[in-house]
Write a structure and sequence with these properties.
Rossmann fold; two-stranded antiparallel sheet; 15% strand; 5-stranded parallel β-sheet; alpha/beta
Length: 267
């Protein structure tokens, strides 16, 4: 494999079945592709890799992933010269000295029609106050915890690695760099990873090929899914079902440092 290329074997969910097989949900399943991607068109997006979380079990899982998988992945990406971009949320990005601030990054400044839905409805205010989520007795404690959020100390950007605040800024950076393939790692799988404007759904809608490093993320679990990590697994599966893909960290690390091990198509 040329040093200019990366071989990926992305996993997706195949809604099709083989000839002669009943076309029912129980006969569908995962499949793998075999891609050769120009390294210059691929970037690693580190999304909301924070130093803390108010949910302590979410924080513990994320910390283990950072130490065991994300740090080795980041080191391999840097060693291989893979472009890296940090997306830590607007509040954190805007405080960072490497915040990119490309012209046109801030979509809030664009002309738009704010007349509908009504402003009070969007804020659950005035006549719509009854539809607001109830205040919680520990809201202030959670907000105080959020005030200490920053990029994890072991995942700090190095010189030349941009920090972005919005999906528009990520798009502008990708356009300037010629990036087409986005490898996403970070937190939380069923929240920011999916729903940020620089997350997997919106960047896929913009036309990029999105690949989640599936063992470099974890979600915010419910009481019912805590033991099985069902929210995390389902968020990844949702992505694989609808136009996005996933790989594992070791597969990617092995390729980046030229030591790809076992074929993972049977995973």
């Amino acid at each position: 494999m040329s040093a200019e290329n990366i071989r990926l074997q992305p996993r997706y969910y195949r809604w099709h079945v083989d000839p002669g097989v009943d076309w029912v949900e129980s006969n569908t399943g995962h499949a793998h592709l075999d891609w050769t991607v120009p390294r210059s068109q691929c970037a690693l997006v580190l999304l909301d890799v924070w130093n803390q979380h108010y949910l302590k079990d979410t924080e513990a899982r994320a910390e283990a992933i950072i130490q065991q998988r994300l740090r080795p992945l980041l080191a391999a990406a840097r060693q291989a010269g893979l472009p890296i971009v940090h997306a830590p949320s607007p509040a954190q990005a805007q405080k960072h000295p490497q915040w990119l601030q490309l012209p046109g990054w801030d979509e809030s400044t664009w002309p738009r029609d704010d007349s509908w839905p009504p402003a009070d409805f969007r804020r659950s205010d005035g006549a719509f106050l009854a539809y607001r989520l109830p205040e919680e007795p520990r809201d202030a404690e959670r907000e105080a915890h959020r005030a200490g959020l920053q990029i994890h100390p072991d995942m700090q950007p190095m010189a030349g690695e941009p920090v972005i605040a919005t999906g528009q800024e990520l798009h502008l950076w990708c356009r300037n760099q010629g990036i087409l393939f986005l490898l996403f790692a970070g937190f939380n799988t069923n929240a920011c990873m999916l729903h940020r404007d620089y997350g997997t759904i919106d960047m896929s809608r913009r036309g990029y090929t999105v690949v989640i490093v599936r063992d470099c993320t974890t979600g915010m679990e419910s009481a019912a899914t805590h033991a099985t990590l069902g929210q995390t697994e389902n968020a990844i599966l949702l992505s694989e079902m609808f136009g996005r893909y996933s790989v594992e960290a070791n597969e990617l690390i092995g390729e980046l440092i030229g030591e790809l091990g076992t074929d993972r198509r049977s995973c």
